[in-house]
Amino acid sequence: MTRIFAALMLAALAGCGADGEPIRPTAQANVGVGSHGVSGSVGTTLRRGNVSVGMGVAL
Length: 59
Hints:
The chain is α+β, with helices and mostly antiparallel strands. It is 25% helix and 49% strand. Strand 1 (26-34) and strand 2 form a beta hairpin.
């Protein structure tokens, strides 16, 4: 949980423009229902020029 919080804080810092032009993050959320129950996932992607960094977690 600490790693997720740290990653979100870094994404927020990059998004606010403190280190230059702001980077707009994109977020995704998925919820699925199947024979094995309910599953979900969340993720975010940061893109700057040709570089893209994404992270996510399955719940």
